[in-house]
Each structure stands twice: as structure tokens, then as C-alpha cells.
Batch of 4 targets.
Target 1
Amino acid sequence: MDDNFKKLRAYLIDLAVKGHSDNYETIVNYSNVDFCLSNDNSKLIKYLTEILEFEYSNGRPLITVFATAKGTNLPKEYFFDLVKKNNIYPKYVDNSTIIKIERENSFKYWRDYENLKNYKNITENQSISFKSSFKK
């Protein structure tokens, strides 16, 4: 987990605390990552995928639900593809329900001071122990 991962994750947690979403361009511009969205969209998707996997594997809500396509207020398909491939929700649950549940759960989880204090900043032990079993 490099600095870009940590910066993007921290920005998404801040969005969750506020209960707001931002488009990908705004997230890249304000999270101080060292890449440009216009040059490499795949880097952002890679990091968002890793963040989704990290949060899910640690039993936390999927904060990447707050990262949206410009003008839609909805995550891109990669988000729903990962959720479905990894059976996070039953197949009959529609995308709008997933968004609603994950945004509500993220808001509640990250507004809790203890959760914010204990889990916002990633320690070396947390990053070392993370092993993904996600299907990509």
C-alpha cells in the first residue's frame, strides 16, 4: 500500500464522514495523488479496486461507493462488477440498493469517532496483513 492508496482512502473516508460523493476527477485533484486522471484512468480504478478489497476484507463498508462518474453520482461498472464477482451481495440485489446500503453503512461507520480514530490511518501491520482473495 503506497502513498497514493493511503491518500485516496483517506479522502474517501472524509467523503463518507460527510455523506457526500465526488467524481473521479475531483477525487484525484483533491487527494494529492501523484498521477493525473486524464493521463491514466486505469491507475485510479486500480487503487479504488484495492481500497474496496481492503475495506471488505477488514469487515468495513465499501467506501469506494462515494467515487462516482462525472455527472452521474454513481460508481462506474468496475464497482458493481467486483461486488457481483465476489458475492458481496446476492445477485438479485440491484445496483441502486447496493449504493444506498453501502453509503448508509459507510456514513454510520466512519462517523463513529472510535472507528475513525482506530482505522483511518493505516499502520504497517495492517498493510502487511492484507492479502486479497478477490476475483478481478
Note: The beta strands are 22-23, 67-68.
Target 2
Amino acid sequence: MKGGADYYAGRIRRSSRKALLAQKNILVGVDYEPYASINRYAVTASCFCRTCIAAFAARYGLKELPPGEILKKHEKQWIDFRNEQRAEIMGAMAGGLKKFNPSARFAVVTKAMPAADEAERYRREFGIDLCAMDRHVD
């Protein structure tokens, strides 16, 4: 991931809150609410920049396609890809926090865990895959 943990550790070092974040065993929660603006952050409506399309094509061994074609031919893979990207961002944030303060704990604050029959809708509409993010939280 471009930037990654080093990027976030640097942001913390330059932050006016670095003294707060340096406290032993501090719990830092990221408030992740993509559902606050319905459809704006849906993984089928967000970020079809050239970088994301190229990364998607490379991950799945596909040729680069325009957004409409991606959704028509590869919607499930696109949803998986975008949810994994969002989990990687949480991982970079957690990693940056740990680089800055190894005793810190990281949490993601978001919508409650969906019922089994709602999980795919959460992934598609909100880009929330708590199972994918779980490996990055304490």
C-alpha cells in the first residue's frame, strides 16, 4: 500500500496530538462511518481512479476496463478488492500507531456486526467487512 504504516507514523509525529497518542496503553479508535452518506461511499460508486483500476486489474490478472465494464463483468471481484483496500488502510493506520507507540491499542468504531444475511449488503453498500478489518485491531 502506498504510504502505509510509515506514512501514518509520520502523520502522528507531526500531529498536535502526539503527546496524547504517546501515552502508555492508549486505546485509539478510528470512527469509520461510510454509511453516513449513503451511496457516496458504496464500493460500486467510489474511486474508480486509474491507480485503483490498475491495481484491481493486476490483482485479478485482468485488462484495465472502464468502471461500467468492471461492474458489469467483475462486480464481485471489485467489491472484494475495495473492501480489502479499506481493510489495508486500517492496517496501515494501526501499523503507524504501533510504530509510534508500541503499547497503543487500535480499534475501529463503525456499524455493528451485521446479521449473516446482511453481511454481503454491508460489504457492497458500505464497504464494511469487519472480518477483513479484524486482523488489524486489538
Note: The first strand starts at residue 27 and ends at 31.
Target 3
Amino acid sequence: MGTLRIFSLVVFLMAALSTVDAWAAGAATRLVRMVGSPRETIRLQAIESLRLDQDVCASVNDDLIRIAKLESGRLAPDSIPRPSFTELLDLIGRTGSAESENFLISLLDSSNHEVVMAATQVLGKHQMIAALDELKK
């Protein structure tokens, strides 16, 4: 009888852990959707939440880059990006991944000077050395 209880407890714990993993994945997906929101306050709240959990941030980094690409493409050359855009670039830079670095370097060719300045700031802040050659141009 004792073995059955232990087995039941193990099965219960395994089910609970898989539920937690599923919940975490769902929470990350919701945060990414919030980062893509048109409402500035929602975007800033989601970015701050992602900043608090570096593992979740790294797991959704590709989605964050996709959102930042869309937004940078929508900006007119003389427009000023929303504050959440510069915060998003910083969040992307914090991951330190090669994809993040390549994306930030690609923004140096933007026609919007504010985007170029924000990307330069993030590259320097997070000491992305590979960007030096591009910055020398």
C-alpha cells in the first residue's frame, strides 16, 4: 500500500510540474503579445516584466526582435520612436545573443537618426564589440 501512495505522489508531482511549465509558456506568450500592443503603458509594463526574468526574456528573444523590426520599419525618417521602443531595444541587447547583436547592428543603417542613436547606445551599454567595425563607418 505504501508503494502505491509513493507512486501516486510521484505521478501527481510530475503532473503539477508540467502544468507549471505550460503556465510559464503561456505567460511568456501573453507578455510578447503585450509588447506588441499599440498601448504604450501596456508595452512598458510587459517589457519591465520580461526584464525581471532573464530566462523568459531569452526564450522569447526572437519574438522581441520581430516586434522591434516591425516597429522600426514603420517609423518615418524624421519621427521619434516611442519610449517603449528604446526600452525594447535595451531588453533585446540584454540577452547578449548573436541574433540580438546582429539585429542591433542592422539598425545602424536605419534612415531614422533616433533609431540609429538608440541602437548605438544599446550596443555600447552592453559592450557588443562586434559592432565596432560597423560604428567606425
Note: The radius of gyration is 20 Å.
Target 4
Amino acid sequence: MSSEEQHATAVLAALNAALAAAPFNGSVTAYDLDDLAEQQPKPTEYVEVTIHRRYSESSRACTDKGVDLWRVTTRYVARASVTTARNLRDATRTTLEQARLTVEAATTTPVQFETAVPIEQDSEHWYSGLDSWTYAH
């Protein structure tokens, strides 16, 4: 079984490759939580990524333990404007939706959009929203 770390590495590599291109040109980075915690001061624009195995009735009923189901969350954070957060969301969606990631030399099923939390402004005037994604590996 592959680890969360291996899956996070694959997701972050895909996102950071996309964020290196226009319109961001490497000015924005996707971070795992521990890498984000090390950033002082916190970046004014970034994508926060978490990943974990997820439950599925069909996977529990199946005796074949060769496939695990995974959930990725991507949070888009921008200090400047809701437009910037939306641009981060759009770049992430373009990168992840239907992508097949390589983890431990095996390819995942296409990444599927699951749900979203709309981009809103918090009490400290940061804009953020969240998407959830799922795939099997």
C-alpha cells in the first residue's frame, strides 16, 4: 500500500508544475501543511493541500485489498482579492480534474471533483475556498 506522503508528493508535483506556468509564473506555490507551517511570514497567495485515505462501502465489501480510495482537499488562499483566489481555484481545477497521477510507478484512476466550499472572506480579510477530489489507486 502506498503512503499518504507518496500521494501528497504526486499531487503537489502536479499542482506546482501548473502554478509555475502563466499566469502565476512560479509566484504561487501549493504546500503540504508542514511545509506551509515553515513559511514565515505566510505567503500572501497559496494552495494548501491535504490528502487521506477514504472510506467506501464497495471497497469494504470487496475482498481484493489491491485498491485504496483517496481524498484530496485543496484550499485556495489569497490576501489581495477574491479574483486571485478564484484564479488559484481555476488553475487547480484545470490541473486535477480527470488527471491520472503516478504514485509508486502505478497510475491512479482519473481524479474526480467531489465537492466545494465557496470562496469567502474571513475576519482577517483573507479570501479562501476549498475543493475536495477523489480517486482510486
Note: The helical segments are 4-19, 33-37, 57-61, 82-96.
